[in-house]
Design a protein that fits this description.
This protein has 434 residues and is of the alpha+beta class. The protein is built from 10 helices and 13 strands.
Length: 434
């Protein structure tokens, strides 16, 4: 169901229901007040007749030879009975039975298929009875209700029309937004403007703009990945092709040497592809199995085993802190392995690589990897985590530290580099722990 239809039905039905309840309540009160007013008028008529009769001499109703005549009114009857029980005045002779009453007060009586409201008053020995027909009362009540209902119905219809127009006007910004999105170029990822839109739509537009920004960053990252892959893979592929062409023209040991070089190029190409795919998975927020915590000691043991270095090449702490890293084990092992491999590659072979770990607070741990090499220049530290940036003429892919930086960013950690005063190069990886 459309939002407009839902709003119209909800507001319209609610308004009709509330106005209906108010109308029923009003009609009930109106009926009661009309009945009370007419009863009061009936009693006032009886008191008025009694007051007129009291103005006559006391012996009037004993010496009178005929009844007094009271002009008849349609739907209204009256009768006066003297203290001796003699009827001295009446409006309708045929209503003698209806107007004869011994009990004072109000009563309902039926006669000739019509219901009458009767009031009897006793004062100064006189019995005055007045009565009016209920159908006359009902006609008067219908007239009153009609007069009151016409403005009520007009106001209800006007309110429904106002709600309809208000909902249409209120949802017009949504219609404009829908039309703007429909006409939008599929390649246009610019943020949607919020000017001219109601404040209630601003959070929705902001969330949509955030989504567009994430999509734009994803596309830019994929485009950068494609460009980087095309650029970095072109060189090893060219080398492999060259060595194979050379092997085709040579004979003997030269063929084996060319094939060996081609094989080394294939290995470097495979390593670069693995690094590119890992970087794409990390930056693309791909899943890595169960996203559970992993033990630091287990991660370091696996990373050292993957590096393949001799035990004497490392200087390790006696025990690793008993903490669990808040990131998948595969990512943690990859980050530690890349740091260690970087230290082994750039550090001198006769000096060990120092590994340390310390808890800076109860939520984070700092893992330090230090080698005794000369290290890059101070101005080059800011470029170490960039893609395909290499210090010197090393044969690496230039993606190892970029992958570590991406893993740290994904886990909410931090990667930093420093050249200590005593020499060497130091990489610090800060990761959250349980």
């Amino acid at each position: 169901m459309k939002l407009r239809t839902r709003l119209l039905l909800t507001l319209g039905l609610t308004l009709v229901l509330l106005w209906g309840v108010a109308a029923a309540w009003l009609m009930q009160d109106l009926h009661r007040e009309v009945e009370k007013t007419l009863d009061h008028r009936l009693a006032q008529s009886a008191r008025m007749v009694a007051g007129l009769m009291e103005q006559l001499p006391p012996d009037t109703w004993t010496t009178a030879r005929r009844n007094f005549s009271i002009p008849a009114t349609q739907g209204l009857a009256c009768q006066v009975i003297a203290p001796g029980g003699k009827v001295i005045a009446r409006t309708h002779v045929e209503l003698d039975q209806l107007l004869s009453s011994d009990r004072p007060g109000y009563a309902y009586r039926d006669m000739d298929g019509a219901t009458w409201r009767v009031f009897t008053l006793r004062r100064s020995g006189l019995t005055i009875t007045t009565a009016d027909r209920l159908d006359e009362r009902n006609r008067l009540l219908r007239d009153v209700i009609t007069v009151a209902a016409v403005p009520f119905v007009v106001a209800l219809l006007g309110s429904l029309v106002a709600i309809w127009l208000g909902v249409l006007r209120g949802l017009r910004p949504l219609a404009r937004l829908q039309e703007g999105l429909r006409r939008r170029n599929p390649e246009d990822l610019a943020p949607l403007p919020v000017q001219g839109l109601p404040g209630e739509l601003h959070p929705l537009i902001q969330a949509f703009n955030d989504l567009l920004a994430r999509i734009r960053r994803t596309i830019e990252r994929e485009q950068r990945f494609t460009d980087d892959a095309a650029h970095e893979l072109r060189t090893p592929l060219t080398g492999i092709k060259t060595h194979l062409q050379v092997a085709r023209r040579l004979e003997g040991d030269a063929v084996q040497q060319a094939l060996s070089q081609a094989e080394l190029g294939v290995g470097r190409l495979g390593s670069t592809l693995d690094q590119l795919l890992m970087l794409a998975r990390v930056e693309g927020r791909a899943g890595f199995g169960a996203e559970t915590a992993s033990s630091l000691a287990e991660v370091m043991a696996l990373a050292l085993a993957d590096c393949g270095g001799a035990p004497e090449r490392f200087e390790l702490p006696a025990t690793w802190p008993s903490v669990r890293l808040m990131l998948p084990r595969e990512l943690a092992v990859t980050a530690m392995r890349n740091l260690i491999v970087n230290a082994l590659t750039h550090g001198p072979g006769n000096r060990p690589v120092v590994l340390e770990a310390s808890c800076s607070d109860q939520h984070r741990i700092t893992v330090t990897v230090r080698d005794a090499g000369s290290g890059p220049p101070q101005e080059a530290l800011a470029h170490l985590a960039e893609r395909f940036w290499r210090a010197g003429k090393q044969q690496g892919s230039g993606l190892g530290l970029a992958i570590v930086a991406a893993i740290a960013q994904r886990a909410g950690g931090e990667l930093s580099f420093a050249t200590p005063a005593q020499g060497g190069f130091e990489a610090r990886l800060i990761l959250p722990v349980e």
